[in-house]
Amino acid sequence: MASLIVFMLFFSFSAFSENKNLIFPPENLPVEISVDLYINKIYNINTVDETYQIDGYLEYSWVDERLKQSGTDSISGPRLYENDRAREFINTKIWFPTIEIMNVQGEIEKPGISIEIHPDGTIIYDERFFGTFSTYMNFRNFPFDTQNFKVRVEAFSYDNNYLVFTNPTLFFETESNSFVEKWNITGKTAEISAHPYPENYPENPHYSRAEFEIKAKRLTGYYLWQVLFPLFIIIMASFVIFWIRDFGTQIGIGFTLMLTVVAFNFYSASILPELPYQTFIETIIIIGYVFIFLGILAVIINYRLYSDKGNETNNMLMRILRYLFPLTFFIAWFVLFMLFKID
């Protein structure tokens, strides 16, 4: 039985090696390659570097009629080759296009690959991969932001005249709590496009690209209770200076809380990249600076103008500021939520 299996494998390799034209693209061009992406997990999301890691599978399938088996072939059913045998088969026995992942950073790990050849000439190639990916992230509404995690796959050497992607499909297990850490999935897309390279080429070639995208909204519980709520309390606490009579105590509390808000500013800078626009959390911190500074300025002006006129006038102005500042602060927060369209 073992000798029969060895003979069958030898016959299979011999059959392919006899046709040296298999190293060239098929005659029926362009070759249509179906591409599927299955994602196990998205993890290590780095907001500073705008990167994330993906554990998943990529599957490509196409038809090469030169690999069809005739009715007289002694081997029936698909032939499966894995890892080293698959690499050897790809390198020496068939035409296999180079396909690259466009938005991966560094080397991508492929711990397992397989290639399956069916009697009708259908080729199915699977690879397990681990890699670090990057894409543009919009942090304007941070920490209430929504991000898109993308995987872009593109033909390397063959333009649309030779190779086109078809039927892109994206799979993932939404039931898994660890699929995307600290994010809530809101949608997915899988699209095919023709990308021009480069424009100064006289023939202006276009290359087929498959783009997979997962849309996810950040889970805000941590930032809401550990950042925004304490910041809100600190700013509200700064209004206590309007209820205190001693000028020295007023100034001391004001500057102490100002330094506390500075600490929040350093925290927000450590979790976000250097951005050319203002984020929601940074705007909240700026509002904190403004209200605490205006509170300090108000008590200084009040002290300089009314310290020699008795407590009655002094207390009347402080009574107005006690309610004016909190009311203005609530209005500012409401307007801010409307401007950033926070839901």
Tell me the structural class: alpha+beta
Q: What is the radius of gyration?
A: 32 Å
Relevant CATH superfamily of the largest domain: Neurotransmitter-gated ion-channel ligand-binding domain
Unreliable spans: 1-20
How confident overall, as mean pLDDT? Answer: 85
Top-tier CATH class of the largest domain: Mainly Beta
Could you give the order of strands across the largest sheet?
Answer: 3-5-6-2-1-8
Shape: rod-shaped
- Percentage of residues in DSSP E strands: 25-35%
Assign a percent range to the helix content: 25-40%
Number of strands: 10
Named at the architecture level, the CATH assignment of the largest domain is Distorted Sandwich
> Remind me, CATH topology of the largest domain?
Acetylcholine Binding Protein, Chain: A
Determine the number of helices (DSSP H or I, runs of at least 4 residues): 6
* Domains (count): 2
How many angstroms separate the termini?
68 Å
Q: What is the string of SSEs from the N terminus onward?
A: HEEEHEEEEEEEHHHH
Written overview of the protein:
With 343 residues, this protein is α+β, with helices and mostly antiparallel strands. The protein has two domains: 14-218, Acetylcholine Binding Protein, Chain: A; 222-339, Neurotransmitter-gated ion-channel transmembrane domain (Methane Monooxygenase Hydroxylase, Chain G, domain 1, Up-down Bundle), CATH 1.20.58.390. It is 36% helix and 32% strand. A six-stranded mixed β-sheet has the order 3-5-6-2-1-8, with helices on one face. Strand 5 and strand 6 form a beta hairpin. Helix 3 (221-237) runs parallel beside helix 5 and helix 4 (247-271) runs antiparallel to helix 5 (280-306). The relative contact order is 0.12.
